[in-house]
Structure prediction request, 84 residues.
Amino acid sequence: MLFTAFVLLVNGLIGERGLTELLRARRSFAAAAADLSRLKRDNAILRAQIRRLRSDPGTIEAVARGELGLLRPDEILVTVKDAR
Prediction:
């Protein structure tokens, strides 16, 4: 009887559905919840950026100048090289 109780106790702690598996599942859930939170925050930032790129002339101009190298018709591009 004592042996059976011991086997059931060990199985309850380290068995397939035991305490260690429960703790591992909780850690996995916490990591997944943190990832989900980070992804939601990233999505909110990207949505705001999309909204600005669709409607804010200043943002559109900054992208056109920075990424595409565009200038206004009355501007002159001056390139300064380092003297090293």
About this structure: The chain has one domain: 2-66. Residues 2-66 form one domain. The chain is about 70% helix and 0% strand.
